[in-house]
Amino acid sequence: MGAGESGTGAALLAKAKGYDVFVSDNGLIGEKFKNQLVAANIDFEEERHSKLKILKSRMVIKSPGIPEKAPIIKEIRDAGIKIVDEIEFAFSYTKAKLIAITGTNGKTTTTLLTYHLLKEAGLKVGLAGNVGHSLAKQVIKDEFDYYVVEMSSFQLDGCYSLKPFISILLNITPDHMDRYDYKIENYVNSKFRIIQNIDAQDHFIYYVDNELIKQGVNHLNIENGLMPVSLEQTQSYGYFQDGVMNVGSFSINQIDTALLGKHNAINMMSAISAAQLVGIDEQSIKASLKTFKNAPHRMEYVATINNVRFINDSKATNVDAVKYALDSFSEPLVWIAGGIDKGNQYDLIMDAVNEKVKALVCLGKDNSKLRDAFHNKIINMMETDNIQEAVKASLDYAEAHDVVLLSPACASFDLFNNYEDRGNRFRQAVLELKNDFEMSINDGTKN
């Protein structure tokens, strides 16, 4: 069910393993995926779910984007049909070792960095999950010794026998509460499914300063393979002190890496720990930390206009991600935020906002919750549903050496297709404004 990257990959693997496969998507199937299904002679449908056909299935591999509350999913479960995630299905057909990475924030950065460290060291490694290609599609040939897999809570919900060699849990803060009956314990339990089958041969790297993770580890009473990383506790396997990351016997100053901010220290210590476990030497790790290039829309520098830096952090769709972003700067900030609120608790960032933010530009159709949270705290505030207006107003509020930070704290679907679309259009608006500003300077119309 679902014919995106994961669903199509699962269908291709199932076909290769001799299953009779049928693909059903309630929306339109992308041309690329449709062509792959046709080439593999796989039966499919789009813009509907043929209930009678689906309910004859032996197994359903469900796209993680389809919620449990969907009527068709309830009927499948009532019929006693097994429902699994694509990664669960693929795991049973691979001999490779999995490095699985989850957390509310930082998953993609840590996954890409871990993959980069292994690949640059010459290991045979694949990239899968929410980044890279479908794990199932890669498992058809199964040419790698390792797969680095980014996993969301939705994917973990569909996993039962999954047993990563290395599991990484970066943080847990409230997110997707609408999918978890607004109960944080349900969300926490989902994240901890990543180690539900851990044994003495496996390893669990986790951020010990996070209270929900610490409680979960204590509750499960895990004794083997624990590798905590910390920003505060020097007795942890990995810890951050005076700008230096210490992981086992390995040390490196964060300024000698490609990533800044304390949140990225957590991400890097986790990736370094994984790299050490697979035998990568210190020299290779240090060299690769300098050459890493992160994915777009994650604290991405866009341009400087009139000595004001513009940073694209469109991926920050919850308050915890915004907190990490705010903590990364010492300069005064003009903050662009807004979109579809997901149950945000803005008191978590109130102190950081009061300390650093000089102006707030609310970018969304309904900015009421954001406005109500900060209107007494921030002198300069405006609302708009136009990205060009938001960028121009931000420059007007800023002074030399300030930073304009797009870090929305909200989903993007009120004005944009997704967070990538929001980030791309922000980047475009900034670059257009930079061009206009430079032209005006050349024309002598700006001081």
Please write out the topology.
Elements lengths: L4 H12 L5 E4 L5 H9 L3 E4 L4 H4 L4 E3 L9 H8 L3 E3 L1 H6 L5 E6 L4 H14 L4 E5 L5 H5 L6 E5 L2 H5 L8 E4 L14 H8 L11 E5 L3 H10 L5 E5 L7 E4 L2 E4 L2 E4 L8 H16 L4 H10 L8 E6 L2 E5 L6 H9 L5 E5 L12 H7 E7 L4 H7 L5 E5 L2 H11 L5 E4 L12 H25 L4
Helix pairs in contact: 1-2, 6-11, 6-12, 16-17
User: Could you name the CATH homologous superfamily of the largest domain?
Assistant: Mur-like, catalytic domain
Side-by-side strand order of the widest sheet: 6-7-5-8-9-10-11-12-13
Indicate the mean pLDDT. Answer: 94
User: Which bin fits the share of residues in helices?
Assistant: 25-40%
End-to-end Cα distance, whole Å, is 59 Å
Number of DSSP-assigned strands: 19
The global form is globular
Q: Which structural category do the helix and sheet elements fall into? A: alpha/beta
CATH architecture verdict of the largest domain: 3-Layer(aba) Sandwich
Under the CATH scheme, which class of the largest domain?
Alpha Beta
- Topology-level CATH name of the largest domain: UDP-N-acetylmuramoyl-L-alanine:D-glutamate ligase
Helical run tally: 17
Oligomeric state as shown: single chain
Question: What summary fits the major beta sheet?
Answer: 9 strands, mixed
Count the domains.
Answer: 3
- Any low-confidence stretches, pLDDT <50, length ≥5? none
Range of strand content: 15-25%
Whole-angstrom Rg:
23 Å
